[in-house]
Amino acid sequence: MQKGMHTDTERCVRAVQSKDARFDGWFFTAVLTTRIYCRPSCPVVPPKAENMTFYPSAAACQQAGFRACKRCRPDTSPGSPEWNQRADLVARAMRLIADGIVDREGVPGLASRLGYSTRQIERQLLAELGAGPLALARAQRAQTARLLIETTPLPMAEIAFAAGFSSIRTFNDTVREVFALSPSELRTRAPKKGDTTSSPGTPGALTLRLPFRAPLNPDNLFGHLAATAVPGVEEWRDGAYRRTLRLPYGHGIVTLAPNPDHIACRLTLSDLRDLTVAISRCRRMLDLDADPVAIDDQLRTDPVLAPLVDKAPGRRVPRTVDEAEFAVRAVLGQQVSTAAARTHAARLVTAHGEPLNDPEGGLTHLFPSPEALAALDPESLAMPRTRRATFTTLVAQLADGSLNLGVEGDWTQTRARLLALPGFGPWTVDVIAMRALGDPDAFLPTDLGIRKAAQELGLPSTPAALTARAAVWRPWRAYAVQYLWATDSHPINFLPV
Predict the structure, then answer these.
(1) How many of the other CB atoms lie within 10 Å of CB of 46?
(2) Residue 142 — pLDDT band, cuts 50, 70, 90?
(3) Residues 162-170: contacts with CB within 8 Å, 24+ apart?
(4) Catalytic residue flag (residue 400)
(5) Cα separation of 436 and 438, whole Å?
(6) What pLDDT sits at residue 1?
(7) pLDDT for the residue numbered 2
(8) Angstrom distance (rounded) from CA 284 to CA 155
(9) pLDDT of 193 over the 60 cut
């Protein structure tokens, strides 16, 4: 699969005729006779090839006057893998739009964060996606509105506000245009066991299914999150990973549990306007928009990795919902055990995190903000003086904005800024690049676990030689790291009991 796949008509037709779910989210099929658009795996009888046309985004379909299919619900397919594997302007813009920036700051805010003019942003998005930033944000608002209509008893006026619409009229018109149903009709037709269900257990909670491309191996994904969980902020409870979320309009608590065909997600939010952002960040943390078939096929070309991939395909890279938080925790974890890193982080949380109430479990705080950490007394930090200097420099730059680890960042420039900080060596920079920045090709040749696995597998174990040998794994070396780590019996590699 590749950039601009929607232009390869013959390949798209084959995917639709075979109902191939691997292509869901890569492109959308618009049917000229019915004026409906679908995902490639739509269960209805495929239309004739001459009646199909293809678009790169749901927003482009909507702009061209097509309505979403009521059977396959194309707007609920996994997101395109491209936006999390690329570092160019369009990919960075799409990550920001998914994070709700257009709704909060408008197109000028999007352009400002990317360092380009609004005209440049609109031109590039239109050229590649067939829709500009406003249309892409509108499509996202429509999906958020449907989610709230189908999963909550909220009045329609509140839903319109929460989904980001400027007026009830715009909300009504958009829902009718996109779904060919009024908001009340959507609620009446809500599936009993579809993509979303209501949550009877917790008042105010939303329960939904997060789709992904199969296969997905949950072991290292949830094992890593659970093994490194910071008490008070994260926990593993009743077969699910839970954590607190710092969000643009408020805070939230999310519960995520692996299932064979989806991730069960339960969200409790202090402000419903944060729903889209919370979902986007959870998908990013669990790497749910990855294309595991393409990744594993590439890694299987190496005879050393092939048996590891065949044994447990579909490993994802465990990432984060908060890039600044992860960078702080990476510094706390330098040259200490996982348990020691958790202890250091837990002390910071208790002393400087914002308290919140969790009626379901043992979550007590939001992780401290960079501003709170920058204001603390460095002498209160129980760590060596050199690491204290690393910590204080990092949080100061995060707090004043001179270091930005957000989804809009340029990976190369951000790496350079991190390497310039005192106490930041290749391991710290690469682990932040892999898990916070989301670089799918980040590699950790100096990591002890990687060097141990390399030695056991007969690969070179010195960093320089291993880096040279790993060239055949590009551009997916971050995924190769997951397979190499999985050769060990460390708790990060197993689902907790």
Answers:
(1) 18
(2) very high
(3) 162/272, 162/273, 162/275, 163/275, 163/276, 164/100, 164/103, 164/137, 164/273, 164/276, 165/141
(4) no
(5) 5
(6) 46
(7) 52
(8) 30
(9) no
| pTM, 2 dp | 0.92
User: Which residues, other chains included, contact 366 with Cβ-Cβ below 8 Å and sequence gap of 6+?
Assistant: 233, 244, 245, 246, 251, 353, 354, 356
CA dist., res. 437 & res. 411, Å (int): 7
> CA geometry: angle at 116 spanning 113 and 118, to 5°?
95
> CA 280, 105, 357: angle at the middle one, nearest 5?
50
pLDDT confidence tier of residue 195, bands split at 50, 70 and 90: very low
Whole-number Å distance between alpha carbons of 201 and 194 = 18
For the sheet containing 263-269, what is the strand order?
A: 196-198, 205-210, 263-269, 251-258, 240-246, 234-237
Omega prior to 215 cis, within 30 of 0? yes
- Sign of the torsion angle spanned by Cα atoms 181, 186, 188, 190: positive
| Token pair recorded at residue 422 | 């005192």
The token pair at 452 is 């141990």
At 210, phi and psi to the nearest 5? -100, 115
> Among the options 103, 195, 287, 447, which is catalytic?
447
H or E segment to which residue 187 belongs: helix 183-188
Q: Is the pLDDT of residue 390 over 60?
A: yes
Q: Tens digits of per-residue pLDDT, 80-109?
A: 888 888 889 999 999 999 999 999 999 999
Q: Tell me the DSSP string of 414-468.
A: HHHHHHTSTT--HHHHHHHIIIII--TT---TT-HHHHHHHHHHT---SHHHHHH
> Of 12, 38, 42, 265, which is the active-site residue?
38
Both tokens of 166, joined, read 């400027």
pLDDT at 197: 43
Q: How far, in Å, CA of 153 to CA of 206, rounded?
A: 11
Tokens found for residue 63: 């702009």
Q: What is the pLDDT of residues 235-285, one digit of tens each?
A: 999 999 999 999 999 999 999 999 999 999 999 999 999 999 999 999 999
Q: Give the closest residue to 114 by CA, choosing from 129, 102, 103, 130.
A: 102
Pairing of β 196-198 and β 263-269: unpaired
Active site residue 265: no
Nearest to residue 239, comparing CAs of 216, 218, 269? 218
Q: Which residues have a Cβ under 8 Å from the Cβ of 342 and sit 6 or more positions away?
A: 228, 229, 230, 231
Residue 493: what pLDDT?
87
177: helix, strand or coil: helix
Place of tokens 């390497």: 419
35 contacts 65 by C-beta, under 8 angstroms: yes
